[in-house]
């Protein structure tokens, strides 16, 4: 049974990788038909479109899986002025405790998610308290125009995002700077497994997974979080034991040290 469990876990990433390869090919063909050979210099835009379609199509499955985890209660812990890092298709919008929320800034560099987020906002009571900002958290000039400056945020919500950003160390340092003293960094992420056989599987799949699914399996996300600044409660980070998973989680609510 242990061997079957490990084999199933080892081969599980292939399904999502293959589905994404198909979507990337469709996006490429569509771009060539529309733009001709000029599409070859717009591969980043093609990739953004394909990844947005992948996450939009699978949004319901991700939400259903997250409902079996700590994610809903983590999102409900966010209050005041919140920055949601990489909201994607808006999977967390329905989970906010609106009685605690003053305002949410969804900072998302992929412009193809805007319609998905707006559709979900229409169904919930955050329509006038949620703004999409198409940028990265590193784009301080863009954020400053929105009033997001150092020490201005009560909470940053980060659900499966640090695996996908270009430089998680830089992103986490920005997160720490933007939080008020006593502000909360609320996260559910994944990184390297502590199981040596599983790390072999992660290293095997990571090139295709990072290319076509858009996130990395082999990052030391825990270190990036802890090294971003001083936290009051670093020992509160939880690492649920899941030795076979190529996406083992870390989770928690860290408080910025005053």
From TrEMBL:
InterPro entries noted in UniProt: Methyltransf_11, SAM-dependent_MTases_sf, Thiol_S-MT
PANTHER family in the record: METHYLTRANSFERASE LIKE 7A, METHYLTRANSFERASE LIKE 7B
Provenance organism: Aspergillus chevalieri
Protein name as it appears in the record: Methyltransferase type 11 domain-containing protein
A molecular function GO annotation: S-adenosylmethionine-dependent methyltransferase activity
Domain (Methyltransferase type) ranges: 83-187
Highest taxon listed in the record's lineage: Eukaryota
Pfam families the record matches: Methyltransf_11 (PF08241)
Phylogenetic classification of the source organism: Eukaryota, Fungi, Dikarya, Ascomycota, Pezizomycotina
């Amino acid at each position: 049974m242990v061997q079957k469990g490990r084999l199933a876990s080892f081969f599980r990433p292939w399904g999502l990788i293959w589905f994404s390869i198909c979507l990337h090919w469709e996006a490429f063909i569509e771009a060539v038909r529309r733009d001709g050979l000029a599409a070859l210099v717009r591969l980043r835009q093609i990739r953004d479109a394909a990844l947005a379609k992948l996450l939009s199509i699978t949004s319901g499955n991700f939400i259903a899986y997250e409902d079996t985890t700590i994610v809903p209660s983590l999102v409900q812990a966010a209050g005041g002025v919140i920055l949601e890092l990489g909201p994607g298709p808006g999977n967390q919008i329905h989970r906010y405790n609106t009685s605690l929320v003053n305002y949410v800034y969804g900072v998302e560099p992929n412009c193809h998610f805007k319609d998905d987020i707006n559709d979900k906002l229409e169904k919930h009571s955050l329509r006038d308290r949620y703004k999409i900002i198409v940028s990265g958290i590193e784009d301080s000039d863009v954020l400053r125009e929105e009033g997001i400056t150092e020490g201005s945020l009560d909470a940053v919500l980060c659900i499966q995002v640090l695996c996908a950003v270009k430089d998680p160390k830089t992103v986490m340092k920005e997160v720490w700077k933007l939080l008020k003293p006593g502000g909360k960094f609320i996260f559910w992420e994944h990184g390297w497994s502590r199981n040596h056989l599983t790390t072999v599987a992660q290293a095997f799949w990571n090139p295709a997974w990072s290319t076509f699914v858009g996130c990395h399996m082999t990052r030391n996300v825990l270190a990036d979080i802890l090294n971003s600044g001083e936290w009051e409660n670093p020992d509160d980070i939880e690492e649920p034991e899941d030795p076979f998973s190529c996406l083992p989680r870390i989770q928690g609510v860290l408080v910025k040290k005053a």
